[in-house]
Amino acid sequence: MASKQYSINKGINKSLVFKGLRAQYIGYMGLGLLIDLLFYAVLYMLRVNTYTTLLLTVTLGALITAIVYHLNATYGEHGLSKTLAKRKTPKIIRSFSRRIFR
């Protein structure tokens, strides 16, 4: 009886990478471009000139792409979430009584 051979997935516990974007930045890019698509739909329904609509939409899409790639390069895979968490922690904790430590 011949045994089956299965390929081993060597990418376990590695983050997802797509065109240089890592981890959560892929989601940020998708969300930004979805907002860009909705922006185009709203301008189209308001009967704004087609060329103006396309120009604004392409400009917004390029801006979103540049910002997301900049965040990816600056903070890396987990740096942005660490930075956002660090902002929420208090800088100083004051205690006027030692009663809670006894």
From TrEMBL:
- Name the Pfam families on file: DUF4133
Bilayer-spanning residue ranges? 25-46, 53-71
UniProt keywords (A-Z) are:
Membrane, Transmembrane, Transmembrane helix
Q: Record's superkingdom?
A: Bacteria
InterPro entries per record: DUF4133 (IPR025407)
This protein's name: DUF4133 domain-containing protein
**Could you read off the lineage of the organism from its UniProt record?**
Bacteria, Pseudomonadati, Bacteroidota, Cytophagia, Cytophagales
